[in-house]
Every structure is written in structure tokens, then in C-alpha cells.
């Protein structure tokens, strides 16, 4: 995307005109205070708004109307940028010119009905719908917790990053969750909604938009942007210990190796991304060590938590291969300490980064993500990142690896009796 | 003007789909064989010899071909080109695909050689077993995969669509029993030229790429069809109407699969009409589903899936998290036998399908990647023209031809409750 072509109307609307895609995407962003109760309220509010509003009282009426408007989608999402929590309202529709139907105005009005006309009659929510939503949310989380992959990852964050704000949105205790959900009442949701509407940050419009359509979007919303602080990072304190959790419900096991980035800086995101590309390719050290050489890995990869200053390597293994996996870690870092190997990996990562940028330029989701990164000052543009990446040397990589402090293993042992 | 696939058959019988777009910055290549994990291939005749093979052979072959090719591990080779790449085996197909910007012609030639000129040995087979055995565990820990397996296994009296391992790719035990002779027989039987299809998309010249492919195949040994597929009788009879399985899950999960014999409708019509049934009756927000939730019978509809087994036989199945499985079954069958469709809903459905297809161009690489999984339904880039021909009257005729008595049920019980 050409970042310079992102325009701003100085009232918080950022728009990008392009004829490359058939989709038109419009988004409004709102901030809310990051804590566990608010996160749960945001889930309940989101589900409520998508099932009922003042004009379309039932879910069926909302579905029928969206079909009438050529299957447009209204999506309400939770975003977490480090310490900041954001709700995004989104309208996704097909460009009216492509289907030769003049329905932009109707689409925008429908979107506004969902966002701005909630079903809060006499300061009360529709009791049946609200109760149903609570029940569905609890059932969904109960099912999630029974999924060994999901539970293993949630317990990882809880145990290894116990003080992290990430845990505000991670549910491991279904009883606690159920209590919080059941204690949230109508006033809590209405207050949360009202505060949200007073915490507007900005808007985005993307696609083959006409000038009059952009004007229509501008005039549709009377929000005043808050003074949003674009700081997201908080370096996390990582628990330094080895943890083992045994589950009798699954035969799947996985092991995590955690590293704290001692010299963590958000501006170095491109450097961490390059390190991930070096580690994660099928000619890289994780695959070569755990799969090719030791034959103990089904899948494995490294991940960077870009706002928390943490890197971890996760590997799916058989429960009896824990020691082999721990020993394999040394071999991975031997590869990374070998300059000749490092040079090959770095060259690969640079070229792969270039390939990804070509792929992203044809990808709708990636293009809008890049626009969001720009609006929220989350990251460099693709072009800037490519330049920075190409300047990296193996000395930069060596210095970064030296600044990774190993914190310990987290082993989730699947000990289900298969008989 | 919308782009569509150029459809050809090469001299050796391999089918070719070309999508040519001068604006594309990447190339996409996908090589598919009509051979997958379903049990219709556990038995076959090769040169008049009968073979009975273990589950997981198609998937095992996929691993062998890509990891032990004449170029070494072909995956790793493609990774050096910075491609996005994968190989998958599903119920009815196996495919090898990649996407990238460089050295495409050379990579296409290598891909064809990998699939058409195998070099795997007995030692390679032994080396591959561990990773596959691990993979089988991940399938068996998924309750919807289990439901698929059990319902499909019970659907036909004399045909095991899935095996007793309750896993589409077998289990550790069957994996370690697969041997060279078994895999060689499967390869020789099913990897014949007329059974393969290539999809290539990008900024190509049609004649240039076609000539290039003809040249590649001219250097390879042709694979003639030597297989005679096994004929299964009693497809109208079921093996077991009701089955249960205990599993660690929050709520019970029910799978109901319907068997339909059909000669009057194309796969495309069946697909779109069945999806209208799903949209009208089974989506969250429909009166029927909201009513079941209020009565505390249903939590959620999780899956609706259609499968074409043979030209004249298809199935569709529904998985749901339930509070009361028996009541759900009764309510569902009762509703299916006495539905209440209306033309207004049908027209809304058509409207939103047209728009969905208009948006496919934004996700073209995803479309290419799913092309072979839906090829039995449609081999066009989008179906807008076809969708406009669908009518409510035709839908009603189709609906009246369906049989809602021929089905099997499996219930996954929460083992902690049990």
C-alpha cells in the first residue's frame, strides 16, 4: 500500500482509495479500560448489539436485512494492543458499482442502527436475549477450556506471565468466569456502552470509494476523538521456573521455552520478525533439529510477544520426549551461534520478507492491517521495514540473541490412558 | 469482465486449469490426484489382483512423495525459494501446492517429477512413520473429527467409509503396519495420469505454459490406468443406526448424517439448494434454532457438511452441541419433514450468494487453494451466472426428492457425566 495515499480529514477519519479490491471496509474504533470485567462486558455487549437493536429487534430481522443488503457484514471485534483495549465496529460490503446496485446509503444506515441504536428500552436490556447471550458465552468458554491446545496455551500465559495484562482476557477458571458473567447486570452493560461511545479514537475507510461516499461517512458520525495515548508496550516480568502440568484428558503434549528480551524496544519489531523467520522456516534450526535430526516434533515454531518483550519456542512432542526436547534447544542455539549458518539464515529471512511484502500487497486483510498499523502508530510501513531489514547484519542478530535471557520450560503433559 | 479458468486436457490425459491474470504478482500451482482417505479405496484391484490396504495410505503417500523425492525433501527445497507451500490429503483428494514469485517454471517441472517419478524406499517409509503417528493423535483428540469418522463408518453396511481406528488417517498401530508393498500398490493404482489435475494461476502466456507442460510430461514415463475400483453392494443399507462414544467435552455432541441417492440434479444444484436449507433452518437466528435453544435442547449447530461419494450418491451431515440429543434428533427430523420455506427467504439467499461470489476476486489465492476441495461442485472461478438460474420452484422439487428416513446418528457423550 502507498502510505502517502492515506488521507485524513482531521476529524479522525482516515481513508484510502483503491480500485484493487471489490470490498469496501469501514471501521470505527473505541477505547476502553483494560481489566477482566470490562473484557467480559465487551463480549456481552458485542453479542447483544449483533442480535438486537431499536429498529431490528430480533436476530432474524438483522440477518434478513443484511441479506437484503447483498450479504454485507457488520463485525464487532476486540483488539488488544499491549496495554490498550479497543473495540472496533466494522462494515464490510461489496462495492455497489460491481453489482450495479445503489445501496451504499442503506448499508451505512444499517451499520449505524447496529452501532448507535442499541435496544436499551427504559434503561433495560431485552431480558431473554441478554440471558441467552450469557448462557452461550459460558457454554462456549466451557468448551474452549476442554480443548487441550487452547487450555495449554492459556495456562502457559497464566503461569509464565502471571502479572501480564494478557491474563485479563484469558479464561482458565470457568467458575470464576461464570460468576463474573452472571453478576453483570443491565446497568453495567449500558454504562459500558455509554463510556465506549465517549471514547472514540478514529475511523478507517478503505476501498473504491467515491468522494460523495467519503463525505457521507464523515457526516454519519458525530464523534469527537479522544486524546488517545499511542503507547502500548509494557515489558513483562517472566516467571523464572520450570513448570509441568499434567492432563489426563488428552494424549497431546507440548513444551514451551521462554526468553525475556533484555534490550526490548518496540522500534525493533522488524528485527524480532526477522529472527522469527530465521527460526521458523523448514530449513531453519527448529525444524532441522527437532524434526529432521531428533525426529521428535510434530510441529514447532517460535513466537514473539511484540508488546511484552518475550519470545517463546513451542514444540508439540510426545510426552516421553521432554528431555530430548530440552537437549535439542542447545543444538538450536549452536546453529544460531555459527556465523556461517547465521549468514545463510539471515539472507533467507531478508528475501522471505520481500516475498511476504509482495504477497501482502495483493491481500485485502494485509492491506487494511497495514493501514491500521499506520493509524495506530503500531509499526513501520512495509517499505520502511524492508529498508531496515535489508540493512541488518549478522552482528545485529548475534547481539540480539545475546540479549535473550532464558527463563525456563513450561511442559504440558498429555497423560491420557488411550486404552 | 470476470476471469474464469481455461480448461484443457494434456496429451497424456492430465487435466489442466489455467487462470491467467496479467496483474497478478505471484504464481499459484496446485497438483491434485483423485485419491484420498475415504474407505472406498481400502479395497481395489490392480492388474486383476485384489488388494485390501490399511487406513492412512493416501496420507502416508503424500508425506513420502514430498519428503523423499529425487530432490530430497521437496518441502525444504520449495522453502529455499521462499514459497508458501503445503500438501494435504482429504477424503477424496491429495494435493501438493505452492505460491511464490521466482523460478516458477523450474519449480513446476520439479513438482511434476516429485509426484510422477517417485523414488521412495523401505527405509524412507520407516523414517516417516513417527511424524504420521504423532499426527494421528491430534486428529483423535478432536471431537468433530471423531463424529465424522463414526457416522461415516456406520452409514453403509458393506462399505467402511472410515475405519475402526476412528481416525481418517489411521492410528499409531495401523501407521506402523503400513509397508512398502502396500504403498507401492496404492501409488500404482491411483496415481495414473487421467486421475490427476493441475491448476496454475498467474501472469502466464497460455500457449507457452501449455507447451512447457507437454514437454515435461513427454520426458516422464506415462502412468496408464491399471486399477479397477471395488464395487460395494448394499449401499442402501446402514451398518449401525445409533452409536455412542465417551470423550472429555463440555456438552454432548451429536452427528446426524443423511444418505441420498440422486440422478436428477447436478452437484452444483445440490450444493446450493442444500445450503439454502442450512441458511433457512440451521443458522443462529433462525426461528427453529432459537426455539431449540430456548427449550434447552440445543447449544449450537457446529457443522453442516456435504459429501459426494459417487456420481449418484451424496450425504449431508449436521453436528451440534446439545443438551438433549434425543429431543434434538426428533425435532430436527420432524422439522425437515415439515419445513416452511418461503420464496422471499430464497431470493435473499440468492442475493447474498451473488455478492459473496463477487467478492471472491479479493481472496483469489484462497480461492485457488480451495479449488480442488470444491471441484466436485464447481470448476468455475465464481458461480454468479449459475446462481442466477436457481429458482424457488426448482428448489421445492429438489427438496421433495430428499429422503429424511435414511440416516445414522452418533452421540459423543461427555465422559465426566458418563
What does this structure look like?
The complex is a heterodimer of chains A (419) and B (418). Chain A has 419 residues and is α+β, with helices and mostly antiparallel strands. Helices cover 47% and strands 21% of the residues of chain A. Chain A contains 16 helices and 11 strands. Chain A has helices at residues 36-51, 59-68, 96-99, 104-116, 127-146, 148-160, 174-183, 186-197, 211-220, 269-280, 285-293, 322-336, 339-361, 364-375, 382-391, 394-402, and strands at residues 7-8, 13-17, 23-32, 73-81, 84-94, 200-207, 243-247, 253-261, 297-305, 310-317, 404-414. In chain A, the strands form 2 sheets. Chain A has a 6-stranded mixed sheet, with helices on both faces. A 5-stranded mixed sheet of chain A has the order 7-11-8-10-9, sandwiched between helices. In chain A, a hairpin with a 4-residue loop joins strand 1 and strand 2 (13-17). The longest helix of chain A is centred in the last third of the chain and has 23 residues, at 339-361. Chain B is of the alpha+beta class and 418 residues long. Chain B has 2 domains: 6-229, Metalloenzyme, LuxS/M16 peptidase-like (Cytochrome Bc1 Complex, Chain A, domain 1), CATH 3.30.830.10; 242-414, Metalloenzyme, LuxS/M16 peptidase-like (Cytochrome Bc1 Complex, Chain A, domain 1), CATH 3.30.830.10. Chain B is built from 15 helices and 14 strands. In chain B, helix 1 crosses helix 4, helix 1 packs across helix 7 and helix 3 (104-116) packs parallel to helix 8. Chain B is globular. Chains A and B meet through helix 2, helix 5 and helix 13 of A and helix 2, helix 4, helix 10 and helix 12 of B.
Amino acid at each position: 500500500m502507498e502510505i502517502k495515499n492515506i488521507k485524513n480529514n482531521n476529524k479522525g477519519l482516515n481513508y484510502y482509495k483503491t480500485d484493487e479490491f471489490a470490498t469496501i471496509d469501514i471501521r470505527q474504533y473505541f477505547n476502553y479500560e483494560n481489566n477482566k470485567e470490562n473484557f467480559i462486558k465487551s463480549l456481552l455487549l458485542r453479542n447483544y448489539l449483533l442480535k438486537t437493536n431499536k429498529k431490528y429487534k430480533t436476530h432474524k430481522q438483522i440477518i434478513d436485512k443484511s441479506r437484503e443488503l447483498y450479504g454485507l457484514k457488520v463485525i464487532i471485534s476486540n483488539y488488544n494492543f499491549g496495554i490498550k483495549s479497543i473495540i472496533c465496529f466494522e462494515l464490510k460490503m461489496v462495492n455497489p458499482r460491481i453489482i450495479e446496485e445503489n445501496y451504499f446509503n442503506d448499508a451505512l444506515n444499517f451499520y449505524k442502527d447496529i452501532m448507535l441504536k442499541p435496544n436499551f428500552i427504559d434503561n433495560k436490556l431485552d431480558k431473554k436475549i441478554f440471558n441467552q447471550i450469557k448462557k452461550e458465552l459460558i457454554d462456549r468458554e466451557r468448551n474452549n477450556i476442554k480443548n487441550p491446545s487452547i487450555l495449554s496455551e492459556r495456562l502457559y500465559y497464566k503461569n509464565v506471565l502471571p502479572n501480564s495484562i494478557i491474563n485479563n482476557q484469558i479464561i482458565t477458571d470457568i467458575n470464576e468466569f461464570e460468576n463474573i458473567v452472571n453478576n453483570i447486570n443491565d446497568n453495567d452493560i449500558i454504562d459500558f456502552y455509554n463510556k465506549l461511545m465517549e471514547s472514540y479514537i478514529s475511523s478507517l475507510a478503505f476501498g473504491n470509494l467515491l468522494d460523495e461516499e467519503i463525505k457521507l461517512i464523515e457526516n454519519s458520525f458525530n464523534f469527537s476523538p479522544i486524546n488517545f495515548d499511542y503507547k502500548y508496550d509494557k515489558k513483562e516480568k517472566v516467571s523464572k521456573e520450570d513448570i509441568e502440568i499434567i492432563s489426563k484428558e488428552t494424549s497431546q503434549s507440548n513444551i514451551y521455552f521462554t526468553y525475556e528480551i533484555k534490550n526490548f524496544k518496540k522500534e525493533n519489531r522488524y528485527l524480532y520478525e526477522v529472527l522469527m523467520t530465521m527460526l521458523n522456516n523448514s530449513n531453519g534450526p527448529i525444524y532441522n533439529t527437532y524434526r529432521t535430526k531428533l525426529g521428535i516434533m510434530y510441529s514447532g515454531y517460535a513466537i514473539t510477544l511484540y508488546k511484552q518483550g518475550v519470545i517463546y519456542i513451542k514444540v508439540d512432542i510426545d510426552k516421553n520426549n521432554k528431555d530430548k526436547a530440552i537437549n535439542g534447544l542447545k543444538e538450536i542455539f549452536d546453529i544460531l551461534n555459527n556465523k556461517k549458518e547465521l549468514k545463510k539464515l539471515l539472507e533467507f529471512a531478508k528475501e522471505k520478507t520481500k516475498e511476504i511484502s509482495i504477497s501482502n500487497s495483493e491481500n485485502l486483510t494485509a492491506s487494511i492491517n497495514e493501514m491500521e498499523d499506520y493509524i495506530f502508530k503500531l509499526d513501520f510501513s512495509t517499505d520502511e521495514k524492508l529498508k531496515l531489514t535489508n540493512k541488518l547484519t549478522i552482528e545485529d542478530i548475534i547481539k540480539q540473541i545475546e540479549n535473550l535471557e532464558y527463563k525456563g520450560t513450561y511442559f504440558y503433559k498429555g497423560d491420557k490412558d488411550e486404552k | 469482465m470476470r476471469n474464469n479458468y481455461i480448461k484443457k486436457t494434456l496429451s497424456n490425459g492430465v487435466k489442466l486449469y489455467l487462470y491467467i491474470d496479467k496483474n497478478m504478482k505471484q504464481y499459484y500451482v496446485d497438483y491434485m490426484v483423485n485419491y484420498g482417505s475415504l474407505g472406498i479405496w481400502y479395497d481395489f484391484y490392480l492388474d486383476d489382483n485384489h488388494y485390501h490396504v490399511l487406513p492412512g495410505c493416501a496420507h502416508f503417500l503424500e508425506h513420502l512423495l514430498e519428503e523423499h523425492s529425487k530432490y530430497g525433501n521437496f518441502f525444504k527445497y520449495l522453502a529455499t525459494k521462499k514459497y508458501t507451500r503445503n500438501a494435504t490429503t482429504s477424503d477424496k483428494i491429495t494435493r501438493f501446492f505452492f505460491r511464490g514469485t521466482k523460478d516458477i517454471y523450474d519449480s513446476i517441472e520439479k513438482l511434476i517429477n516429485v509426484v510422477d517419478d517417485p523414488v521412495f524406499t523401505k527405509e524412507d517409509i520407516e523414517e516417516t512413520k513417527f511424524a504420521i503417528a504423532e499426527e494421528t493423535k491430534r486428529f483423535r483428540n478432536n471431537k468433530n473429527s471423531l463424529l465424522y469418522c463414526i457416522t461415516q463408518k456406520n452409514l453403509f453396511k458393506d462399505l467402511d467409509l472410515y475405519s475402526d481406528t476412528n481416525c481418517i488417517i489411521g492410528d499409531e498401530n495401523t501407521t506402523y503396519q503400513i509397508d512398502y508393498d502396500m504403498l507401492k500398490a496404492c501409488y500404482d493404482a491411483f496415481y495414473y495420469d487421467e486421475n490427476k489435475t493441475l491448476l496454475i494461476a498467474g501472469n502466464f502466456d497460455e500457449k507457452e505454459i501449455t507447451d512447457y507442460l507437454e514437454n515435461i510430461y513427454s520426458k516422464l514415463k506415462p502412468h496408464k490406468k491399471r486399477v479397477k475400483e471395488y464395487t460395494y453392494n448394499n449401499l442402501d443399507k446402514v451398518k449401525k443406526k445409533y452409536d455412542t462414544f465417551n470423550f472429555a467435552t463440555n456438552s454432548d455432541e451429536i452427528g446426524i448424517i443423511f444418505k441420498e441417492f440422486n440422478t436428477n440434479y447436478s452437484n452444483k444444484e445440490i450444493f446450493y439448494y442444500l445450503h439454502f436449507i442450512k441458511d433457512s433452518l440451521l443458522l443462529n437466528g433462525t426461528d427453529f434454532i432459537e426455539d431449540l435453544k430456548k427449550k434447552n435442547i440445543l447449544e449450537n449447530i457446529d457443522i453442516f457438511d456435504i459429501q459426494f461419494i459417487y456420481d449418484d450418491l451424496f450425504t449431508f451431515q449436521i453436528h451440534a452441541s446439545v443438551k438433549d440429543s434425543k429431543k434434538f434428533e426428533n425435532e430436527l427430523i420432524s422439522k425437515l419433514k415439515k419445513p416452511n420455506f418461503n420464496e422471499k427467504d430464497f431470493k435473499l439467499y440468492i442475493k447474498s450468494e451473488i455478492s459473496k461470489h463477487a467478492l471472491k476476486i479479493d481472496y483469489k489465492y484462497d480461492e485457488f487453494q480451495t479449488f480442488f476441495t470444491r471441484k466436485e461442485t464447481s470448476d468455475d472461478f465464481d458461480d454468479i451466472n449459475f446462481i442466477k438460474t436457481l429458482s424457488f420452484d426448482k428448489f421445492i422439487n429438489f427438496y421433495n426428492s430428499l429422503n429424511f428416513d435414511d440416516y445414522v446418528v452418533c452421540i459423543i457423550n461427555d465422559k465426566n457425566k458418563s
